[in-house]
Amino acid sequence: MSTYKLVCPHCHGRMRIRTSEGKHIFLRIAYLQCQNEACGWTVRAEFEMTHEMSPSGMANPAIKLPVADVAQRRAAMATDTDQPDLLDQLEVEATSI
Ligand SMILES: [Zn+2]
Fold it and tell me: What's the CA-to-centroid distance between 36 and ligand 1, angstroms?
């Protein structure tokens, strides 16, 4: 398993999540900043839960998302394990607000 790094598209430096806010139960807005002092680029990003890959073992009836189709499941299998680390970072930011 590799550690995910948010890479600045300008200087290829590492970026960090400065703040994030929940806009909706499925949508979080994050503000990222490049850690390279010579660059310092900041950007707004959106992280959205869009499709259910596997049902919850504690399903809340109020939570409804479309179920991922075959193409989306194949895409998920082709993706390496980077993304959960990104979401972990978001969770840390969410609890600090
Ligand atoms: Zn940069």
Answer: 6
